[in-house]
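Fill in residues.
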């Protein structure tokens, strides 16, 4: 493996030069953007070496940059665009709604319908409220859990990403020190946040034994997002459910990524374990900014200002926005009417897993795939990771991730990011796309082996 790492150092400058040659207009825009945005980007994960790409337009599963380069996109708007870019049905729906008004500032029929189409697919969601992002939804879900239980502490998964909420912005990246992961976040914000390893029943039992009487919520992703695309084991989640029931803790599924991506019933359908609250985003907005949280009526009614003198506050200027509602309804109805789309995404994931394993054997280079329908993580690790610690600890050559990302960009394939390899495909991807991806990985391994 040491030879491979050495090869990455030799190849990297050559691939950087190729990227610069292919993207002069992106370079020009980047030089302009650094005078506008800190770091030259609107979100740091969109940055690449030597500079970010600037996308001009998109359709189906392709994006085109300002230099005219066409890419197969496996990032799909952070996973929000499950039906693909500029889906004709969504475009038509949103365009029609725009003519009626983009934002009312009052209640409207589309919001009710949007909530109903989500509810009918998610059994745990008896009542729902909308937000503008997954981060906001997590904030309100935990506020509700604390109000409902009267307790302070929250347990999360190591490697779990729940947006930029201060109280959960701990133990997202290794070495998992428990300290806030951004300057400006006071240590006090993480004072009541505890963390356990995904799929470790032992750690779950231990944290509840020690702190259970003061645990308000256990928040988890059914499949880790930023933590490597690692699914939670059913037995693990069943134990979490048991401990939450025993200690009167609210179980929160963060389904911002998994919601309507892994199936119509999301992580609840995947695991068969019912949470008390569900946090959503991405897919439910059909490509427009969206978030939501919902769950048991007895918890959600704490938001009811009519019956609760001291009700839990939640609000926002654009909550339940009619444009987003129209796109969300159209997206979910399309998925409801075409259940075979999930079967297709499942087949593509299995195909990628199987054939990358074959490529690994061909070149004797370890590569492992995690994930499930609609979510794929690719890892240069000594073994298949079962939690976020293993995603990072078991790596044998860190530079391979950055080199593969650069290589793929030069070959017309995009995904995020440089330190991880995550694919969130759309229903517009097909077997030819996956075959091309595998061919490029094989070409990449050949290049590295010969360097």
């Amino acid at each position: 493996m040491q030879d491979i790492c050495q090869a990455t150092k030799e190849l990297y400058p050559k691939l950087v030069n190729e990227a610069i040659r292919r993207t002069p207009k992106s370079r020009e825009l980047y030089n302009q953007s650094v005078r506008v945005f800190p770091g030259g980007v609107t979100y740091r994960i969109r940055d690449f070496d030597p500079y970010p790409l600037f996308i001009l337009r998109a359709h189906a599963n392709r994006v085109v940059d300002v230099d005219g380069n066409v890419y197969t996109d496996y990032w799909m708007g952070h996973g929000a665009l499950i039906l693909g870019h500029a889906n004709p049905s969504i475009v038509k729906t949103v365009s029609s709604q725009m003519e009626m008004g983009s934002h009312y500032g009052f209640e409207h029929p589309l919001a009710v319908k949007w909530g109903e189409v989500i509810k009918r697919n998610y059994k745990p969601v008896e009542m729902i409220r909308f937000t503008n992002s997954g981060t906001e939804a997590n904030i309100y879900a935990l506020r509700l859990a604390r109000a409902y239980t009267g307790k302070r502490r929250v347990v999360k998964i190591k490697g779990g990403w729940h947006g930029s909420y201060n109280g959960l912005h701990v133990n997202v990246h290794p070495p998992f020190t428990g300290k806030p992961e951004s300057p400006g976040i006071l240590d006090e914000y993480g004072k009541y946040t505890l963390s356990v390893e995904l799929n470790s029943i032992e750690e779950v039992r231990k944290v509840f034994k020690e702190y259970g009487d003061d645990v308000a919520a256990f928040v988890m992703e059914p499949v880790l997002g930023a933590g490597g695309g690692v699914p939670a084991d059913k037995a693990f989640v069943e134990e979490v459910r048991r401990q939450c029931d025993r200690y009167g803790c609210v179980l929160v599924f963060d389904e911002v990524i998994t919601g309507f991506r892994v199936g119509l019933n999301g992580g609840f359908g995947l695991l068969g374990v019912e949470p008390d609250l569900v946090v959503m985003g991405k897919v439910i907005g059909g490509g427009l900014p969206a978030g939501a949280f919902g769950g048991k009526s007895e918890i959600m009614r704490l938001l009811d200002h009519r019956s609760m003198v001291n009700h839990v506050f939640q609000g926002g200027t654009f909550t339940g926005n009619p444009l987003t509602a129209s796109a969300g309804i159209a997206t979910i109805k399309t998925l409801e009417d075409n259940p075979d789309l999930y079967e297709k995404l499942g087949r593509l994931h299995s195909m990628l897993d199987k054939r990358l394993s074959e490529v690994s054997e061909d070149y004797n280079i370890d590569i492992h795939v995690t994930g499930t329908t609609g979510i794929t993580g690719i890892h240069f690790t000594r073994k298949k990771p079962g939690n976020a610690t293993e995603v990072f600890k078991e790596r044998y050559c860190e530079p391979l991730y950055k080199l593969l990302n650069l290589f793929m960009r030069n070959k017309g394939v995009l995904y995020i990011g440089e330190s991880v390899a995550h694919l969130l495909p759309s229903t517009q991807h097909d077997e030819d796309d996956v075959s091309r991806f595998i061919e490029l990985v094989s070409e990449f391994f050949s290049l590295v082996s010969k360097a």
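The chain has a mean pLDDT of 97.
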